């Protein structure tokens, strides 16, 4: 796969990688979107719009990356969007509960969180990993179907988001949070850089290590993987932990942009994350896909929607387009795969 | 590769409809569900004196009628190893398309157009899944969005009122021998679905398609036809259930049925259907929808906040699903 | 900067409005007998009474539990901009560009703008309206009035986008408009917290922003066109007090934490908090959905045989409650064989039909027909930026509207109107 070359670039590998890239329909689709965008709107290639685009990619991209790893093992994670809000809520709630113990008060009037933000981030990441682990254990050890296990998590977490916040928002205005949400580094939004960092780590792990390769083995043929001596259960739990961590990081990026967290936010984003992974070529049956292709999927998705938004296309027609593109992209890749086989 | 796209291949692939196995599995799952149902009824009567009153039984049954009918269709789809996320989109598009004919004043036309639209959506799903081999999760996720978008576009986002269409309203508000019509339909369709799955030649074909596609094909079963049929049935069930709700409120809301697909799926799985295919029963689905209906009714009677209800519902699903799986493991 | 809480900021904003419009204080003499002033006076009266204490333990407990005081204290109540006095009958009639329904918008003379080109007639002004719910009758009507006002001025180009109740998407739409260098933005924010930052970014980019009805957490926002939630909930309470000194109430409320729920329910509780005869039986959040209100009411009817009042924060909820009561054959099941009183908000045509039929007791109008004010306000801000005119006030109150009842009544000085006297209803006509 192309991504393997990317993780250890050398001159001899760059050229085949580029050739691979040039043959990839999704790359052409992205190029087409940008060319059409540049031709039809003077605003499409402006710095501001490209920054918007990168920020949009960051959140959905992070969710889709975690989803991709789970899908590689032939499973699914419906809890990601609820978890992304839940992890931040837990971070804030835990810190505000701790505050009185050390004689402080971190939730000031108006529900603004005034305590230290780094512990909130750490608790959020821990929560993401922990819920991921619970999902994974339920699926791998208790054999609950992944769709059900994570649907149950989705329902419960959405409920908890309300129970823990009483429906009130928490305002998060710490400087570090502002930096993550609004700042740029070398002209690129920090949130997008965070996404790229996670992407590189995942490419390195999933496509560059033996352990990472086991996700493919499990998704490709689980029984064979088991007979080959792979502790499949442990890797399934690991996949969910990665997904949970990605959801928590997505939550940080998401709430840093909004400078607040609110129970009902990001409803339905789990389905978007699945759609993006699939548009990027990840197969729901497992074993096929890669973080790198999910990057392409999320760029294609966000760039397409951004173009429709620049054109001022109504939301209903945007949704219609998403549905058709989703079915068509999978249908076409199915057909091309059949062709290449025959 | 089979169509069991989502699930682990660690679990033994379900065998093509071996009645003895199927019955053993069903009885274990059915027992735990029945136990939960009985416990809920006893608990309910203990804490809410009017729980077993005829009026409250009507309330519970009316509340589960639509979700139960949708879940019948979903169960058939899940038994074949597929999934149908489009039901809310199919329901709302069907109701809106039917609703556009309200000015004709003909309830027959409105009802016919509603059911026909559901059938068309179901056939489209079935064709894309069975003929082109696109995973059903993707197809129906796509048609969910498309259905909702088209419902908005054709209605202009405006609610429609089937006022004066008495035959249509009767579907939601009428009674038949003292029983509310939606409940009658829930029972009749349940009986029909049981007959279809257990006592017709379609039944074995259905379970075989979900259990082991290759074996099914080798034994001469037309799996494409089976898949298209179950999606078509699911589309019609969605349209009918949507119509019952719309008639009950005399109100067709293009923004309606939000998130219904996941509730219906939860009921289906709670009823014992496995997403790996080959396993599931209509009676289990009906029991599961009653469990959810009773839980919601009781929590509302107790005044538990809707947000906590979500958490409780999640716990109930796990509590019912887990023992079944454990026992299946032990039995192996 | 960090120490400034939202509530603190809102208080500052409220204080500013004292300067602009003297809320809850002396009312200019010429407007004293207007509906708006009468209702503001009653709001102050009952709010003050509630602050000194609530004698009804049930009501007080609910009031405390959900922290209504925090919300009510910062919700601006004040006079209308430019000394405007609204009287029933005012406004313009037209066909809604989106709903294709006949509309009479009540406030078209408020902060008026003459037909024809605005500001610099040689320039084109691009304005964006972002809201949620192009398939929700209330919200379509909001967009209708905005589009109507925009069409009156040939050099305004209006883009209308539905963010489908995704606050993050609404932020993205605003960011896109910043990139497209729009001249002005009008928004209907779903929730306060998430919409503050995008609004701040737009204002920082020099684009005037006006919010409609609900609020954002932005302190930089150019203007807020405010609804009259306070008068809504208060009138529901006053009606109940007038109709019956006692009653067992079930609540169908909106999303916990939403402004509409906090202010309406809070004001209702303030109004009845010092009458000992009311009991809170059950309290549901049905999130503006008719089907959910239907289910909770159906279940409550089984749990309680002595329900006498159904309080609803919205029209959707009231319709759902009515359908459930009707289905259970319990219309007249309140103690003593009396009718269950349904109290509603939102003057949808279907709700008025039920008022006429005597099935819903009263409705506090909450008109969506305020989009035009937002367009006019944002145009004035664009003009003020170019030095062409004065800017409108930061807080633009909309006139308090009197409740609608089947028969004409006078309740604590409020002259109620009958459905036939109310030409401003929105939403599809219901026949039959």
From TrEMBL, chain A:
Pfam family, one: BPD_transp_2
Keyword hit for Cell membrane: yes
Compartments (UniProt record): Cell membrane
InterPro entries associated with the record: ABC_transp_permease (IPR001851)
Any one Gene Ontology molecular-function term assigned to this protein's record: transmembrane transporter activity
Superkingdom to which the source organism belongs: Bacteria
Transmembrane segments: 26-45, 57-74, 80-101, 113-134, 185-206, 235-256, 268-288, 308-332
CDD domains attached to this UniProt entry: TM_PBP1_transp_AraH_like (cd06579)
Record key words, sorted: Cell membrane, Membrane, Transmembrane, Transmembrane helix
Membrane topology: Multi-pass membrane protein
GO annotations of cellular component type: plasma membrane
Official protein name in the record: ABC transporter permease
UniProtKB/TrEMBL annotation, chain B:
Membrane-topology annotation of the record: Multi-pass membrane protein
Lineage, uppermost ranks: Bacteria, Pseudomonadati, Pseudomonadota, Alphaproteobacteria, Hyphomicrobiales
Record flagged with keyword Lyase: no
Major place of residence: membrane
Signal peptide: none
Localization: Cell membrane
Keyword Transferase: no
Pfam families noted in UniProt: BPD_transp_2
This protein's UniProt keywords: Cell inner membrane, Cell membrane, Membrane, Transmembrane, Transmembrane helix, Transport
Domain of life: Bacteria
MF terms (GO), sorted A to Z: transmembrane transporter activity
Residue spans crossing the bilayer: 34-52, 58-79, 91-121, 127-146, 176-199, 219-241, 262-295, 307-325
Entry protein name: ABC transporter permease
Cellular component aspect of the GO annotation: plasma membrane
From TrEMBL, chain C:
PROSITE patterns (alphabetical): TAT (PS51318)
Annotated Pfam families: Peripla_BP_4 (PF13407)
Single GO MF annotation: carbohydrate binding
Signal sequence annotation: 1-31
Signal keyword on record: yes
Domain Periplasmic binding protein: 127-384
Keyword Membrane: no
Any GO CC annotation of this UniProt entry: cell envelope
UniProt-listed InterPro entries: Peripla_BP_I, SBP_2_dom, TAT_signal
Domain of life: Bacteria
Chief subcellular location: other
Subcellular compartments: Cell envelope
Alphabetical keyword list: Signal
Family: Belongs to the bacterial solute-binding protein 2 family.
Protein name: Sugar ABC transporter substrate-binding protein
Origin species: Mesorhizobium tamadayense
